[in-house]
Write a structure and sequence with these properties.
A 5-stranded parallel sheet has the order 2-1-3-4-5, sandwiched between helices. It has a 5-stranded parallel sheet with strand order 7-10-13-6-14. A two-stranded antiparallel ribbon has the order 8-9. The chain has 19 helices and 16 strands. It is α/β, with parallel strands linked by helices. Strand 11 and strand 12 (about 275) form a beta hairpin. The chain has 4 domains: about 5-130, Rossmann fold, CATH 3.40.50.2300; about 140-315, Rossmann fold; about 315-385, Helicase, Ruva Protein, domain 3, CATH 1.10.8.60; about 405-465, Arc Repressor Mutant, subunit A. Helix 2 packs parallel to helix 3 (about 60-70) and helix 17 (about 425-430) crosses helix 18 (about 435-440). The protein is elongated.
Length: about 475
């Protein structure tokens, strides 16, 4: 793992020298700033885990340093040093977000102790941020439901592949559970306590994906007011999961290849070469071989990604798993009085081919539990595609003579309505990439596409996340 970074800020060089000496034997990436303005500049240029600053300084003071820290994401922990007579101001700093304060003359042993405590809290905060995004979510095989031979084979592959840092390519149809496989690989690995950082490549425009992966320096582009670490830097010694990797643009594919081959990369707008020890797991619902043949995906990158390949079977190939999954989802979404299925409804669910896979099944069961809480749901409560009467069967009426652009808009709108606004699923049904769908929805304006990606990604996660495979 990279060393944790410590910034010392004081307007007195002798004080800085004394503080520096105190941390000489500590394994921190130690940086000093003579004066508050220099401290602000350094905080804009790079990221620190902990900042120790004098409170009273001419011009830019410790409170200005604290305000800068609070504006950063993630924010560094700030410890302030104050004269005895300035304790009320130090208390004000604590209310404004400082984690601790010490009075002068500084007990260097005590300072080291408090910095170590702040560093540990920062490490735990980062771990919680990326490993426990949802406290109720479990990442191991226990969260994956299935007893079919096809899934037992997948479980065996996961257990074997999890013990190495080899790159893994997960393939399978949309909604089959590829992200859960990636999380299981991470959770069962020797570095499970390190961060798992997911990047949904199709949800990011070409102008943003490089910065998201590798980070950027201050001033790298308009709006980059401070340096920001990328996902590879955030993942540290853990795992970077590249979902829908086929959507990575060619220019970024070259840089991704370099990370896989040499573990090296540079931030956008930077010149310093950084190293990443993160394991890479990629997933796609497309045939990368076909993408390579058409020239859309680099052949050398494909071979680097495909060191280990795991195919997640579609639900229609998982004999006997539909009843297990159905009951699991009924248990998950039912209230105090469980929703049940009539024999006829259960048979329809078993016989359906589920083109949307586990995600589609999960959404259907959740809908039943919402609309028929504590009741016995019958065939009439199922979606029309399963023989129910709960919608219009997915029929779209078009007028003869409609303009092609109006036909396209109608098809997109109706498909989104049918899948509850899930753009990933809609793009799959329409036979286009998710980025193409977003561009059409924004009228070709990529800036609107950029604004929408975060909201869209959240909707796709909440309304159609990779459910238990």
């Amino acid at each position: 793992m990279p060393r944790q970074a410590l910034l010392l800020v004081d307007d007195n060089q002798d004080n800085l020298d004394s503080l520096t000496l105190a941390f000489a034997r500590c394994d921190y990436d130690l940086v000093t700033a003579l004066g508050g303005q220099t401290g602000l500049d350094l905080m804009s240029a790079r990221w620190f885990d902990v900042v120790v600053t004098d409170l009273k300084m001419p011009g830019v003071d410790g409170l200005d340093i604290l305000r800068k820290a609070r504006s950063l994401n993630p924010p560094p922990a700030v410890i302030v040093i104050t004269a005895h007579g300035s304790i009320p101001t130090a208390v004000e700093a604590l209310r404004d977000g400082a984690v601790d304060y010490l009075t002068k003359p500084v007990d260097l042993f005590e300072l080291r102790h408090r910095v170590a405590g702040a560093m540990e809290k920062q490490r735990l905060a980062r771990e919680n941020l990326f490993l426990h995004e949802e406290l109720s979510q479990r990442y191991g095989l226990e969260s994956m439901i299935g007893d079919s031979k096809a899934m037992r084979d997948v479980f065996d592959q996961i257990k074997r592949a999890a013990q190495s840092r080899a790159t893994v390519l997960i393939t399978g149809e949309s909604g089959s559970g590829k992200e859960l496989v990636a999380r299981a690989l991470h959770n069962l690995s020797p570095f499970a306590r390190q961060p798992f950082v997911a990047v949904h490549c199709a949800a990011l425009s070409e102008s943003l994906i490089e910065s998201e992966l590798f980070g950027h320096e201050r001033g790298a582009y308009t709006g980059a007011e401070a340096a920001r670490p990328g996902r590879f830097e955030m993942a540290s010694g853990g795992t970077v999961f590249l979902d829908e990797v086929s959507e990575v643009p060619p220019a970024v594919q070259v840089k991704l290849l370099r990370v896989l081959e040499n573990r090296e990369y540079q931030r956008v707008g930077g010149t310093k070469t950084l190293r990443s020890e993160a394991r890479v797991i990629a997933a796609t619902n497309r045939s990368l071989e076909a993408e390579v043949a058409s020239g859309k995906f680099r052949e050398d990158l494909y071979y680097r990604l495909c060191i280990v390949s795991i195919r997640v079977p579609p639900l229609r190939e998982r004999e006997g798993d539909i009843p297990l999954l159905t009951q699991a989802f009924l248990n998950e979404f039912s209230g105090a009085t469980p929703t049940r299925l009539s024999r006829e409804a259960f048979e329809r669910i078993e016989q359906y081919r589920w083109p949307g896979n586990v995600r589609e099944l999960r959404n259907v069961i959740e809908r039943l539990c919402v609309l028929r809480p504590g009741a016995i749901a019958g065939v009439e409560d199922l979606p029309a595609v399963l023989g129910g009467a709960s919608d219009d069967g997915g029929v779209v009426q078009l007028r003869v003579g409609m303009k092609l652009e109006d036909v396209e808009k109608t098809m997109i709108d109706e498909t989104l309505r049918a899948v509850g606004g899930n753009r990933t699923r809609a793009a799959d049904l329409l036979g286009i990439s998710r980025r193409t769908l977003q561009r059409k929805l924004s009228g070709g304006d990529e800036s609107l596409e950029d604004d929408a990606t975060g909201e869209d990604e959240a909707r796709d996660r909440d309304g159609g996340k990779d459910a238990q495979p």
